[in-house]
Every structure is written in structure tokens, then in C-alpha cells.
Design a protein that fits this description.
The chain has 190 residues and is of the alpha+beta class. The protein folds into two domains: 41 residues; 126 residues, Calcium-mediated lectin (Jelly Rolls, Sandwich), CATH 2.60.120.400. The protein contains two helices and twelve strands; from the N terminus they run H-E-E-E-E-E-E-E-E-E-E-E-E-H. The strands form two sheets. The protein has a six-stranded antiparallel beta sheet with strand order 1-9-10-11-3-6, with no helix packed on it. Strands 2, 4, 5, 7, 8 and 12 form a six-stranded antiparallel beta sheet that branches. Strand 7 and strand 8 form a beta hairpin.
Length: 190
């Protein structure tokens, strides 16, 4: 087969390749909630701010790292800002799971971010709402069994490079596959 720009299959191949490039180079959506999934720290400095919460109970807020728990404050003292220039100093290294937790002083219960497997009731107790400019607001539910599921009993704004693990979406894989099929038509020998 002679390679020619006039070959009708060539247009399909170019369309597939251009679509693949567009999907792989596009930025991710910036505003979305994440519920019940593990969140990872991807490096750089972090800033934490305790926001006004709506809870009768007092919850102490902690960052869990490989070297222990770092106490930030509680949900009743809002406006507290903590800057951590190098989180590796406190045991949080790039590509490790990022886990905030609360200790509810009124009940003695501890609840953590993630899928609920580390919580005493097995229920998800935190939601992560991603915003713009590497900002996420993490909201906790402080009652055993899930309570009213409003996730506003302890609120922490985190600015930094946090996100889900880098796993290709099914649509990306489908587009990659169609690009490869298109390329196989182009180089097929008759």
C-alpha cells in the first residue's frame, strides 16, 4: 500500500489521532465532589483552614501521617490557618494517601476520610469538594451511623496538590483504542 494523503482511511486516522491528543492533553474538571474514595497528596506545600461548621458536637481535626497525627484545631475555632511548606517533614510524602480525621470529643468516636473501612461504623464520613486553584473543602459527618449525612459538622479547606490516583478513564481508553485501530488501517499492507 502506498502512503497517500488522499486515501479516505487517512482522514479517519487523523481524526482518531487528533481526538486522542485532545483528550489526553485536556485538563481535568476543576469543580466536583469526591465521596468515599481515597485522596492522594501529589507534592508541594499545603495550607489548611478551619471553616465554620454546623454541629452541636466538638470535633478535633487531625492530619494522619506516617509519623503520627498532626493536630490542627477543632471545628468550633474557625479561621485558623496552618501552612506546611514541606509536608515530608511531618511524614506526608508525595503520592501517599492523604487522610484527615476527626475525633468527636462528646462521643469519643474517630472518623476518617476515604471509603469508610477505617471508620468504626464502616460508613463514609467525609466528602471532598474540589474547587479551583488546587482547593478542596473536606466536610465531615460526626455521628456514628452517618447522622444526617450533611457533611458539614467539621469543614476544612485545603489548598495544595491533592487528587485521586492517576487512573485512565474508560472514555480515554476507548479513544486510545479507536486511534490504534485507525492507525492499523493506515499501515495495513494489502
Amino acid at each position: 500500500m502506498v502512503f497517500s494523503l488522499r486515501n479516505p482511511r487517512f482522514g479517519l486516522v487523523w481524526l482518531s489521532v487528533l481526538g486522542l491528543v485532545a483528550v489526553l492533553s485536556s485538563s481535568t474538571v476543576q469543580a466536583y465532589p469526591v465521596f468515599g474514595q481515597d485522596i492522594y497528596y501529589h507534592g508541594g506545600s499545603l495550607q489548611f483552614e478551619i471553616l465554620a461548621a454546623d454541629s452541636f458536637y466538638t470535633s478535633q481535626i487531625y492530619l494522619h501521617t506516617s509519623t503520627g497525627n498532626i493536630f490542627f484545631g477543632n471545628n468550633k475555632i474557625t479561621g485558623v490557618v496552618i501552612n506546611i511548606g514541606d509536608p515530608s517533614v511531618i511524614g506526608l510524602n508525595a503520592e501517599e494517601e492523604f487522610v484527615l480525621g476527626i475525633h468527636v470529643t462528646n462521643t469519643g468516636k474517630d472518623f476518617f476520610m476515604g471509603g469508610g473501612y477505617d471508620n468504626p461504623d464502616g460508613i463514609v464520613h467525609a466528602v471532598v469538594n474540589y474547587g479551583y486553584n488546587q482547593t478542596a473543602i473536606i466536610g465531615f459527618e460526626d455521628l456514628f451511623g452517618g447522622g444526617d449525612l450533611d457533611y458539614n459538622d467539621a469543614l476544612i479547606k485545603v489548598t495544595g496538590n491533592l487528587g485521586l490516583a492517576q487512573v485512565p478513564e474508560p472514555s480515554t481508553m476507548l479513544l486510545l483504542g479507536s486511534g490504534l485501530v485507525g492507525l492499523s488501517f493506515l499501515i495495513r499492507i494489502k
